[in-house]
Specification:
276 residues, alpha/beta, 4-stranded mixed sheet, 20% strand
Length: 276
């Protein structure tokens, strides 16, 4: 059976997109995954720098804001031939969708051509929302200076507007359930959270209103919430961590977290979740 699938990875700056793609390609190329690589892609420019950084035990640099490069992979997933197109781009482009309220022609093409979305959210960087029902005004005034930069547009509103703008670009209405793309929300940099919650519980804790919106739009068969730690631990300014990467190689690190909260060392299964 031959299938043609297109997965669009969506994420704000420093959400872990490039690191995941680098680890994904390294694993499938070396046969250390459920997913099999049928042939090496012609162009790996999108993630080659990140692969080099990880192989040296260094943190990959974030993708340049104006960059748009597609990584096209021919894969075998459970016996199906899957042509996977993963664009690599600067996360600032995602922020611009909500700040400027417009989607350029490049992104319109990407959105319309994709039927499976992976939305990367780095939950550890989301500031808590203030709730006047449990927090006094004085407490908010005292603390708001610490999160002043986050108050321009709340994360709740930003992600809700992002989803709405992407659906608008795809020309799909919320009542057209059969036409909605499959949505997998991925809580990235899981190692930063240090808790025993499931991915869905983290999403509800950090972005409860956003969670309510996507649950109202998508049916259960087309919506999943997973966790991901593509590196497994930070590499910046940590000699011991760097040595581990040099000794054991990058493809042996990283894990995903299932809906039940269990860890799976095969991070390539995220793509399987996105297309099944």
């Amino acid at each position: 059976m031959t299938a043609s699938k297109s997965v669009l990875i969506i994420g704000k700056p420093a959400s872990g997109k490039t690191t995941f793609l680098a680890q994904f390609l390294t694993r499938v190329a070396k046969g250390k995954s459920k997913v099999k690589l049928l042939s090496m892609p012609d162009n790996i420019k999108a993630i080659s720098d990140a692969q080099k950084s990880l192989s040296s035990g260094e943190e990959p640099a974030t993708t340049q804001s104006d960059r748009n490069v597609e990584l096209n992979l021919s894969l075998d997933i459970d016996g199906n031939n899957v042509q996977l197109s993963c664009p690599d781009y600067g996360g600032e482009q995602i922020s611009a969708h909500t700040e400027l309220m417009e989607i350029d022609k490049t992104w319109q093409k990407l959105v319309k051509g994709s039927d499976n979305w992976l939305l990367f959210i780095r939950a550890s960087k989301i500031s808590p929302e203030y709730d006047l029902s449990v927090t006094s005004y004085e407490t908010i005034e005292k603390d708001k200076s610490d999160v002043q930069k986050e108050l321009v547009l709340s994360e709740q509103s930003s992600y809700i507007e992002l989803i709405q703008s992407l659906l608008y670009a795809k020309d799909v209405g919320v009542r057209q359930e059969r036409e909605l793309p499959k949505l997998v929300v991925v809580i990235t940099c899981w190692d930063e959270l240090n808790n025993e919650l499931t991915p869905k519980e983290v999403l509800i804790e950090k972005l409860p209103m956003f969670n309510n919106v996507i649950e109202a739009m998508w049916n259960r068969q087309k919506l999943s919430v997973l966790g991901l730690s593509a590196q497994e631990f930070p590499l910046k300014d940590d000699t011991e961590a760097t040595d581990k990467y040099l000794d054991d190689l990058p493809e042996n690190f990283g894990y995903m977290v299932t809906e039940e909260g269990n860890k799976d060392k095969d991070i390539t299964c995220l793509i399987d979740w996105a297309i099944k």
